[in-house]
């Protein structure tokens, strides 16, 4: 089979200059042909590599999610590691395709890693924090948390960021470095939570009667736990009201539903028992001219 160089017509045959030109052109054609082949093969390697990396990530994620013994939070984490590992091998294969030797490549990668590490300290700290979050699990997917001055339900945890969905549906992306380096409040971590209310009554009302109305209204709800024991106590004598605090325990999933339900039920119960809930009054004095 003839190469592209062999198929070229001769130019200036019989002279030294013609031979030199022919050889030079042949070399250029051979180099160009090799370059085209290498570029095409490199593009094919990249295409297949990205395809395989994506498939591997999804497969690992699916296998982890199917295993009941493994936390679902680890699915994206392990999937991401597999994807980046495959892409690193693909990158080495592409460079090798262009004649870069493995030994020199390792040395270059070492120098590049140091330079990149210095330049991307913040990004690498996010990766390190992501590893800490995944393995120590201060929160997991589905938890409602406060992290880095942001509140929401954890939707995803990647190597670099934690994605939250706020209560109004807004997406919030928090760098893992900020999440791990700040106070983390996880409202979903424990199976039970305390529900607190403070109800105000007038100084003219009977305190014992008001406290009994609160017991009869709140405590019979089947969602409220008997242990720890509910607490109903007077907590303050304010300028125009007496404040009564109610503290009960319930399942974390029922916390907000109970809290909202009782605000309405207690108002109806106070009205039915002629117990006044004080509110500011404005008195206008008109002077006769």
Automatic annotation (TrEMBL):
Its main location: membrane. SUPFAM superfamilies: Mechanosensitive channel protein MscS (YggB), C-terminal domain, Mechanosensitive channel protein MscS (YggB), transmembrane region, Sm-like ribonucleoproteins. It is a multi-pass membrane protein. The chain crosses the membrane at residues 35-56, 77-100, 106-136. It is found in: Cell inner membrane; Cell membrane. Residues 195-277 form the Mechanosensitive ion channel MscS C-terminal domain. Homoheptamer. PANTHER family: SMALL-CONDUCTANCE MECHANOSENSITIVE CHANNEL. This is Small-conductance mechanosensitive channel. It comes from Hyphobacterium vulgare.
């Amino acid at each position: 089979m003839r190469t592209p160089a062999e198929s070229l017509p001769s130019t200036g045959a019989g002279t030294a200059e013609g031979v030199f030109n022919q050889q030079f052109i042949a070399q250029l054609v051979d180099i160009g042909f090799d370059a085209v082949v290498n570029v095409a093969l490199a593009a094919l390697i990249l295409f297949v590599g990205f395809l395989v990396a994506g498939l591997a990530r999804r497969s690992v994620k699916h296998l982890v999610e199917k295993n009941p013994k493994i936390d679902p939070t680890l699915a994206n984490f392990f999937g991401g590691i597999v994807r980046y590992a495959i892409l690193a091998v693909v990158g080495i294969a592409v460079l090798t395709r262009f004649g870069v030797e493995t030994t020199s490549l390792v040395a270059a990668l070492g120098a590049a890693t140091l330079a990149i590490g210095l330049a991307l300290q913040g990004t690498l700290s996010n990766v390190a924090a992501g590893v800490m979050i995944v393995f120590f699990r201060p929160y997991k997917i589905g938890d409602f948390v406060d992290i880095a001055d942001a509140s929401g339900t954890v939707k995803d945890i990647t190597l670099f960021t934690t994605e939250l969905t706020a209560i109004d549906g807004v997406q919030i992306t928090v760098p893992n470095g900020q999440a791990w380096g700040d106070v983390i409040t996880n409202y979903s971590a424990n199976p039970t939570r305390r529900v607190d209310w403070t109800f105000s009554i007038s100084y003219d009302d009977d305190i014992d009667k008001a406290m009994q109305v609160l017991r009869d209204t709140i405590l019979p709800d089947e969602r409220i736990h008997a242990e720890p024991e509910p607490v109903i106590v007077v907590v303050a004598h304010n300028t125009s009201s007496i404040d009564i605090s109610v503290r009960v325990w319930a399942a974390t999933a029922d916390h907000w539903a109970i809290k909202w339900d009782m605000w309405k039920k207690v108002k109806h119960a106070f009205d039915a028992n002629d117990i006044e809930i004080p509110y500011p009054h404005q008195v206008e004095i008109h002077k006769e001219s």
